[in-house]
Specification:
six-stranded mixed β-sheet, single chain, four-stranded antiparallel β-sheet, 17% strand, globular, alpha/beta
Length: 303
């Protein structure tokens, strides 16, 4: 196996991965890269470049036609399909078209992953209401998707994706159906989660967003092949700033600990009070101060 193999400092590794649908030509070819824990990545490329297909591989909705994909220290190609749901619970997904369940209100949409994971009904109310407060929708708990604006629907979708505190958050064009102002607010949410140690991958056509996260790395797809001119995707840099960022949310500040993949439950921390709903309309400003701490994960998969 090549240097793309997973090490203790990587959370995802692809080695010579290809994907084809049926007997057609490959839509993804010779992908070799690693994702660094706690890093922020933008996935860019023209329409048809293969971004959605790559994201499907990342959130385990599709198996590659060839190559090796390792996540969380496990080979996903040889992992039995019956074991994949446990790993998927460690991955949050945000879709461009929201994919909310129309007959469920905001509370039930956000609670859905916890219910699937077997969390007791008595334990649902607090984490779900806290998450809806965090995305600025405490006043829309009972609202159904058809009554929500585009920005509100996307915030419900984000809350649903991160309610279990995933190790990886994958977002497919999350700002494609919202206005520029809301797009920036959504990016602030992703940044807040990234500061807490979540690896974030955002697929986007919006080149203006790329400058909003200074420490992000850019993955460019061109006709199914990944551009990595600096080698930063295959050999992730050890960023001191990222290490310091992760240490702010860890009870252990030793230099060795800062470079490790999070493989155990974090020590309990006090939860910050969520921002009150804004008076500036449904899509008003959201206070995502550094004091926000999501609850500990529910229903986590294998470590």
């Amino acid at each position: 196996m090549s240097d793309a193999g997973q090490t203790p400092d990587t959370i995802v590794s692809f080695d010579n991965v290809g994907l084809r649908y049926g007997t057609d030509t490959e839509v993804l070819r010779d992908l070799s890269f690693t994702l660094f824990p706690g890093s922020f990545y933008f996935l860019t490329g023209a329409s048809g470049a293969g971004k959605t297909s790559l994201l499907k591989l990342l959130y385990l909705a599709q198996r590659p036609s060839r190559g090796v994909v390792k996540m969380f220290g496990r080979d996903m190609i040889t992992t039995p399909r019956s074991d994949l749901p446990a790993f998927r619970r460690r991955i949050g997904v945000v879709f461009q078209d929201f994919r909310l369940v129309e007959h469920m209100n905001a509370f039930d949409n956000v609670a859905l992953p916890l219910r699937v994971a077997g969390v007791r009904e008595a334990d649902l109310k607090q984490p779900v209401t806290e998450m809806l407060s965090w995305v600025g929708l405490a006043h829309r708990v009972e609202a159904f998707p058809t009554t929500l604006s585009g920005g509100e629907q996307q915030r419900v979708a984000i809350a649903r994706a991160v309610i279990g505190r995933p190790d990886i958050l994958v977002a497919d064009e999350p700002t494609g159906n919202v206005d520029p102002e809301m797009a920036l607010k959504l990016m602030r949410m992703f940044e807040a989660l990234n500061r807490l140690g979540t690896t974030v991958v955002v697929a986007t056509h919006d080149v203006h967003l790329l400058k909003k996260v200074p420490e992000s790395l850019i993955m460019r797809l061109d006709k199914g092949k990944l551009s990595d001119p600096t080698g930063a995707l295959k050999y992730p840099p050890r960023s001191e700033k990222r290490s310091e960022k992760r240490s702010e949310t860890s009870s252990d500040t030793s230099s060795e600990r800062r470079s490790e993949v999070r493989s155990e439950q974090p020590a309990p921390k006090p939860r910050a009070k969520a921002a009150a709903p804004s008076d500036e309309g449904d899509d008003g400003p959201i206070d995502l101060g550094p004091g926000f701490k999501p609850r500990k994960p529910f229903g986590r998969g294998p470590q």
